Amino acid sequence: MASDAAKSTESTHRTSGEPIITVRNASVRFDMDKGTSKVLNDVSIDINRGETLGVVGESGSGKSMFADALLDAVVDPGILTGEITYYPEDGEPIDVLNLRPWELRELRWEKISMVFQGAMSAFNPTMSIGEHFEETLNAHGWDEDEGIERARQLFVDLHLDPDRMLSSFPHELSGGQKQRALIALSLILEPEVLVMDEPTAALDLLMQRSILNLLYDIKDKYDLTLVFISHDLPIVSGFADRMAVLYAFEFVEVGEATEILGNAAHPYTRALLKSTPNLEISLDEMRPIEGESPDPVSHPAGCSYHPRCPLSDRRCRDEDPRYQPVTDDHEVRCHYWEEADEAVPLAFGGEDR
Ligand SMILES: Nc1ncnc2c1ncn2[C@@H]1O[C@H](COP(=O)(O)OP(=O)(O)OP(=O)(O)O)[C@@H](O)[C@H]1O
């Protein structure tokens, strides 16, 4: 649609960094009997080499679709359109959505690796952890001995005992150990980008934090760019460089993590900060976001957040807001973002902290 294309070209969230992946006008739709379900709506963003990008939003906002899109891994019958370009450290840019099947398979493990949502149960219960590593190395034609040495080092870096891990079966490991084993497996073919879709959601808060801290520690050693997908804004913003907030399948706010945590400009982002349980906010201060997120088959006209927004008026109902700069590296799609701090005050973080 011409109007969609015009809208998304308003901003690609460029920053001063060097992009490793660029996403332009990425959309995912499912053609269903009740109509077309648009579950990623014309999303554009640059992901910079070496950064940690956090992508956050409520359940069903399109986070997994965004992660899948980066690897052209949207499941059938989903239709992914747009342009996704990967810029290897050495070599020509790669047009991700136009690769042959074998090129895509190589890209997925050796360039951009992904820990999928719910992947902890993806370990084959009849195979030891070591056999999972061997299988992956062999499938990609990598030297097994060298690969297992690399796995051992990864285990050490992730605070795990290599001998025990390699010989264990999945059921012998705790959730946190399994999760770290999965991260090690996803790094075994030396990818440049690691995409993690809710990798710690099944773990308790303290375990989530300790795994995030470990990832933070190994990121530089392995020259990684991290894309971290989560519903938990406070936990991600504590460790990401930049955050992109998804609402109703579109980015509504993108900016440096400190800005998003301390100076959130979108009423939705602010509501999300108040609604997520975390260690700094008491249960009394938590407020669920009222109302429902939009049905992907019938997006509301105007701003997609207007039915739930305390600031909305006729303009919000009629006119889809454009991106507006809050600072050089912080953009928001809201007509009334300058009033958001009063309309949705934060009891923690931000200006009140
Ligand atoms: N196979 C499918 N067919 C049709 N719609 C789908 C399909 N898979 C997902 N969707 C829809 O796409 C939308 C976005 O889903 P997605 O999994 O990206 O959300 P999410 O933000 O990752 O949510 P969660 O945090 O619950 O995983 C949802 O409305 C979902 O119902």
Automatic annotation (TrEMBL):
Positions of the ABC transporter domain: 23-273
Biological process according to GO: peptide transport
Cellular location(s): Cell membrane
Any Pfam family matching the protein: ABC_tran
Keyword list, A-Z: ATP-binding, Cell inner membrane, Cell membrane, Membrane, Nucleotide-binding, Translocase, Transport
Gene Ontology molecular function terms on file: ATP binding; ATP hydrolysis activity
Record membrane topology: Peripheral membrane protein
Chaperone in keyword set: no
A GO cellular component annotation in the UniProt record: plasma membrane
Protein name: Peptide/nickel transport system ATP-binding protein
